[in-house]
């Protein structure tokens, strides 16, 4: 059950505290480059819908990044992006409410190419990159935990690697949740952090 009202200016903080790595990476790249390629946009905006970001706030977020901070002109944004965002929210076309992607889908979908940031880091990043980013950018300073995450990823246990990261980040041991969905990760995190 959704208890927090989430606005787009909260996303930077939420990304740091409560996003799984797949979504945190997309958020960081989007706010850094002020753009995101097609598959990344699909993966991220459905996640945003899933965490309870309203359609209006989602439009504000994309418009702010692509147009205000980025170089896209407003007309192009309206033409190329507004419909698709509304569509993801079930407000256009067949009014289907699209389901945010599960871990299995993200893990099995086509891997990210050059300048693409979708996918699952435990699946799609090479072990050195994963280890280096976890320690430099994502605050894992325990060598044993780092090695465990990389080993699990190497052995194709991506969701277990994600769970180890979750437990470390939230300072809970043997929390017992199996991670199977980025939105489930987020919800569990909010439960722990907001009580
Ligand atoms: Fe995202 Fe799932 Fe991969 Fe975790 S295991 S990073 S939630 S796709």
Automatic annotation (TrEMBL):
Q: Look up the record and name the cofactor or cofactors this protein needs.
A: [4Fe-4S] cluster
- Top-level lineage group: Eukaryota
Keywords of the record, alphabetical order, are: 4Fe-4S, DNA replication, DNA-binding, Iron, Iron-sulfur, Metal-binding, Primosome
Q: Which GO terms describe its biological process?
A: DNA replication initiation; DNA replication, synthesis of primer
Give GO cellular component annotations, separated by semicolons.
alpha DNA polymerase:primase complex
Coiled coil location: none
Does Metal-binding show up as a keyword for this record? Answer: yes
User: Which molecular-function annotations from GO does this UniProt entry contain?
Assistant: 4 iron, 4 sulfur cluster binding; DNA binding; metal ion binding
Q: Which residues form the DNA primase large subunit C-terminal domain?
A: 13-186
Hey, which family's this protein in?
A: Belongs to the eukaryotic-type primase large subunit family.
Q: What is this protein called?
A: DNA primase large subunit
Tell me the organism.
Didymodactylos carnosus
| Whole-protein coverage range | 173 to 367 of 378
């Amino acid at each position: 059950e959704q208890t927090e009202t989430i606005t787009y200016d909260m996303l930077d903080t939420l990304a740091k505290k409560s996003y799984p790595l797949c979504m945190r990476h997309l958020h960081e790249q989007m706010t850094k480059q002020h753009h995101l390629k097609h598959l990344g946009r699909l993966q991220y905006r459905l996640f945003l819908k899933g965490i309870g970001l309203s359609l209006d706030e989602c439009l504000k977020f994309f418009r702010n990044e692509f147009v205000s901070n980025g170089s896209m002109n407003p007309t192009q944004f309206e033409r190329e992006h507004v419909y698709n965002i509304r569509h993801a929210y079930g407000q256009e076309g067949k009014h289907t409410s699209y389901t945010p992607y599960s871990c299995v889908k993200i893990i099995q979908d086509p891997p990210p190419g050059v300048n693409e940031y979708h996918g699952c880091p435990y699946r799609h990043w090479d072990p050195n990159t994963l280890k280096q980013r976890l320690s430099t950018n994502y605050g894992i300073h325990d060598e044993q935990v780092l090695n465990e995450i990389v080993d699990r990823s190497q052995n194709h246990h991506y969701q277990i690697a994600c769970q180890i990261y979750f437990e470390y980040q939230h300072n809970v041991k043997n929390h017992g949740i199996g991670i199977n969905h980025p939105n489930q990760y987020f919800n569990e995190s909010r439960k722990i952090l907001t009580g």
